[in-house]
Every structure is written in structure tokens, then in C-alpha cells.
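User: Please predict the structure of the protein below. I'd like the answer in C-alpha cell form so I can feed it into my own downstream comparison script.

Assistant: Understood. Taking the following sequence of 128 residues as input:
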Amino acid sequence: MKSQPWRLTMFISGIAVIAVGTAMAAANPRRDAYQSYAAEKMSTYLKQEVCPDAPKNFGGVLREQCNQFVDRGKQPMKQWIAESTERYNYILFSIYKTELSLMTGLPSYQFKTLGIFQNFWIYEKKKQ
């Protein structure tokens, strides 16, 4: 009987696909990991983009204390993000759609984030 190398190749390829799929499913990040990631990203944005532009009202207290306010607000930010996020779980990866709006009259923001292999990548940002 002749050896059929394509069968061995197909078998090895099948095992590799199953192994990668299993690893992806095991490393699909959970919702609470996304909430921590998003709160950290929001905190960084506020500290770098918003705090430096804070008005110097009240003797400069707001500008000077802005970073501290942001740090104290991380837990409420996680809750706000949790309430504003939909997760689409595709077993091997997840898509997170977050819509943040402070109040009527101010712009709202929409983020779409890919969660895969315990990491997150924001692939779409919209200001509405």
C-alpha cells in the first residue's frame, strides 16, 4: 500500500485548527475585563485631553485636581461602561459596542472593540 502524504497533512492541519480554535475560545476576554480596559482608556483620555484644558476657575482647583477626580471616578466609570455596552460573543472572539452619552446637547460617542486572545483593539470610533 502506498503512503498518502496528503492524508497526514490533512490530519495535522485539522489538529492544528482545533488547537488554535480551542486556544482562542479559552482566551476570549470576559465582559469585566473589557470594562476595566475601557475605564482605563477613558481615564487616560481624560487626563491627557480634558484635564489640561480644564478652566482655572475657583483658584485653579479644577485644573489642579482633575487627575485626582478622574482616578476616583474609575469605579463609577466601569459601571457606566457596563450599562452602555453590548457584547456579541462569537466564542472565538467578542465584539463590544459601547455608546457613551453624558447628557442631552453634548456629543455622544460610539466605540466598537474586538476582544481576542485576552486583548482588546478599538477598531471604530464615532462622535455623534
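That's the full C-alpha cell string. Residues 5-127 form one domain.
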